[in-house]
Amino acid sequence: MAQSPLARVHNRMHETLRRLFLEGKLKGPSQKGFDPQQWQATFRQIPSPSTADQRHFEAALWFGEQFNQLRAYFDANPLPPGSPEEVLRRVVGVVNRECLTAINTAQQTLTASQGPVTASDIIEGRITLAGNVNKAPPAQLIESAIDGLRFDLEALQRPRTSLSEFDVPKQLLHLRRRVNFTIAYHILEEEWLECILQGWIVNTADSDTIQLRPGDPESAIARVVSEYRDGMLLQEMNSLARSIFNKHSAVRDRVLRSKVVRWRGPEGTLVLGYPSKQMAFPIYVSRLSATEPDLEPFTQEPLSHRGGLTLLQLVNAWAALASISWDLSSQIPLIDIDNPSQFERFAPLLPMDALISTLSAATELTPSQCETVIDTLTWRTVRDSLWFRPLVKAGDKHRIVVIPALRAPNRVWLRS
Predict the structure, then answer these.
(1) For 283-310, what is each residue's pLDDT tens digit?
(2) What is the mean pLDDT of residues 95-104?
(3) Beta-sheet strands, E only, within 281-401
(4) How far is CA 294 from its chain centroid?
(5) What DSSP string describes 126-183?
(6) Greater model confidence, 409 or 195
(7) CA triplet 47, 50, 53: central angle to 5 degrees?
(8) pLDDT of residue 288
(9) Which are the contacts of 209, defined by CB distance < 8 A and separation ≥ 6?
(10) How far apart are CA 140 and CA 159, in angstroms?
(11) Distances (CA, A) of 380 to 163, 213, 344
């Protein structure tokens, strides 16, 4: 039964546990320092806990158990041996390869499909009002794999006191299992946030089935409809952009003549070049997606927290670097893997000096400004999104690219 607006306001006013969580006074189950006993003690101290408090309390304890089990799986499948650089490249490489495989499979399926694919087909493949939760389309798998990668990167930041020695097949198994675990960890974290922020309920009445369902179905349906509309608007924008790009040679030629950073194999040299026809439209439409019309008056204002760079300079720099992701995906063959070292092919080292010099030549930014751009795009901590920071630091002199994330429209500067 749907809640009345008055009931919803009343519940929000009495969500003590939610407020304490948002204020940072209670650690959530996905955070370091989560203490079930603290949640229990806090819940008991609430004079008249609301229904929402009861649900949040139950959700926190249930998710805490799930995260503990996942952490045990991680411990039972340690990272393979190797130098810090080798292990880092293999961890990023396995995610890059899995994502490229998913993209390639989706493209083959699309090519083999009969008839046109409509915008609603694309959106409904991602958003359904009552779909099968176990049906994960390629886009969701890619998003979750890249979001989950941050947990292994965070693990690599901690000192490794011992290295596990085991045979090659088991090393491969552990690497692939950890990708699955990080995906599960990321999805669990998202579902926990749905419970604490959006009022979803963990239903454990049936011991054989655990259900997550909205506490307020009316609001949940309205939210999904809104997401559906947002997706349709994005598809409409892409369609309009495609029409403009194809019909107006001046627009197309401007993109094709823009200078970008290219990656040339087999050794992976970074050179100044121009976008190929294949990558020109994705860069064009992604650049449009990375900016908002309402922000246009502010695009030329220096950003003090970005070394005085403007939003427009940052977006142009990202557009110049995004071409690297298409070069990597087209020039690295999707070979069968029989040794962990082969994953390193999917995570080549990009020298910082070459990145800075070629980016400077492509954008006319100074080397110092280019270094700021690269630092802005470099992942730092587990709370950073790799979609916003798609470069991974491999020592002071190299970066590694999370391939699908670099080509996506980057909104980190808009958010910050």
Answers:
(1) 887 777 666 655 566 677 777 777 788 8
(2) 87
(3) 350-351, 391-393, 398-401
(4) 25
(5) T--SS--TT---HHHHHHHHHHHHHHHHHHHHS---------HHHHHHHHHHHHHHHH
(6) 195
(7) 95
(8) 72
(9) none
(10) 32
(11) 24, 34, 21
DSSP 248-283: -HHHHHHHHTS-EEEEETTTTEEEEE---HHHHHHH
Alpha carbon distances (Å) from 175 to 67, 149, 169, 335, 344: 19, 11, 10, 17, 13
- pTM of the full structure: 0.79
Closest CA to 202 of 188, 193, 187, 212: 212
* Chain centroid to CA 127: 18
Q: Distance between alpha carbon 269 and the CA centroid of its chain, in Å?
A: 27
Side chain identity at 60, as an amino acid letter? Answer: A
Give residues with Cβ within 8 angstroms of 229, minimum separation 6: none
Q: How far apart are CA 60 and CA 305, in angstroms?
A: 36
For residues 238 and 314, give the distance between their C-alpha atoms in angstroms, rounded to a whole number: 22
**Which of 69-78, 150-159, 174-183, 296-305 shows the lowest mean pLDDT across its residues?**
296-305
Q: How far apart are CA 222 and CA 364, in angstroms?
A: 46
Q: What is the pLDDT of residue 132?
A: 41
Out of 3-17, 108-122, 242-256, pick the least confident: 3-17
Q: What are 4's two structure tokens? A: 């009345």
Among candidates 64, 51, 325, which has minimal Cα distance to 192? 64
* Cβ neighbours around 91 below 10 Å, total: 26
Query: Could you give the 3-state DSSP secondary structure of residue 55?
Result: helix
